[in-house]
Design brief:
- A hairpin with a 2-residue loop joins strand 2 and strand 3.
- Helix 1 packs across helix 2.
- The chain is built from 3 helices and 7 strands; from the N terminus they run E-E-E-E-E-E-H-H-H-E.
- Helices cover 27% and strands 30% of the residues.
- It has 117 residues and is of the alpha/beta class.
Length: 117
């Protein structure tokens, strides 16, 4: 066992949508727009990668309007990707895993409503 070296592992972050999450809101300031983008990160689960190996996966849910905005604006899409990665890091405090180092930053979303009762 080597000390001081981070272990790299592949993780996936699925971006999903639900109207149960609050809509994003924009506040205009003299320095530019300031967005509030509510989201929810679900518990980790395992999914298979292309090689059939198990990888940890997290679902990050935004309001559907956030995903519509991300389709129309690359800067907003980047905001959602960063927000999802920050959410996983904050919630799970993956101290030995830098989410940014191993996450494919493409944004793909589905219509899954993972947070229904």
């Amino acid at each position: 066992m080597e000390s001081g070296k981070a272990v790299k592992e592949k993780i996936f972050i699925n971006v999903v949508q639900s109207d149960k999450i609050a809509r994003p809101t924009k506040k205009s300031t003299p320095k530019g727009d300031c967005w509030s983008v509510p989201y929810s990160v679900g518990p980790p689960h395992m999914e298979k990668d292309k090689k059939g190996e198990n990888s940890a996966c997290f679902d990050c849910c935004f309001h559907s309007e956030a995903l519509i905005l991300s389709d129309a604006n690359v800067d907003f899409k980047n905001l959602l990707v960063t927000t999802a990665m920050d959410g996983v890091e904050a919630l799970y405090k993956r101290q030995e895993q830098d989410v940014r180092a191993s996450t494919n930053c493409g944004l793909k979303h589905t219509n899954d409503d993972l947070f229904s009762n």
